[in-house]
Predict the structure.
Amino acid sequence: MNFEICVSTPVDVAIAQEAGADRVELCGHWECGGLTPTSASVRASASIGIPVRALIRHRAGDFIYNASEKKLMIAEALDCLDAGAEMIVVGGLDESGNVDEHLLEMLCKKISSDLIVFHRALDVSKNPLESAKILQDFGINAVLSSGGAPAAGLGLGLLRDLSQLGMEVIAGGGVRLEDVTTLGQVGVEAVHASC
């Protein structure tokens, strides 16, 4: 199982690497749940030598975005990849609480689906398992999820279902050391923690 640490500065990235992390997810502004890092921060972090995934989220709040916001998200994603991020972590929902297929179409026109992780917007979607199937239709096979629960250790059923569907599941949200073995047993590929 891989160990992914959520970080917000290149200093954090260096500490995560020294501590033995397999990769990091880089974001800014932890106080509001994380926002898109600057391309300079991505570039400096990527130069450290550990794989960097960049969160793409330009504002706090819900995951329902208008047309202008979606264009900004595409631009931010391209900037982060150009700056050295190995993948982007992104998500969006429509007004009905389903995965935003228009956003996915926009993303997949510009970015290979292999470079996209769908984040915890999945957990608050109307039907997370059906949402995952839509992601697969777009070729997106990686998800960051708590299993729809307040903490990943409580969402084992959905995490197992996502894994059995063939998704690369990264368990995130309240991950505790004592949960790691059980998460692995349900097919989780990586644990994501801020430490």
Remarks:
- The longest helix spans residues 67-82.
- The first strand starts at residue 2 and ends at 7.
- The mean pLDDT is 96.
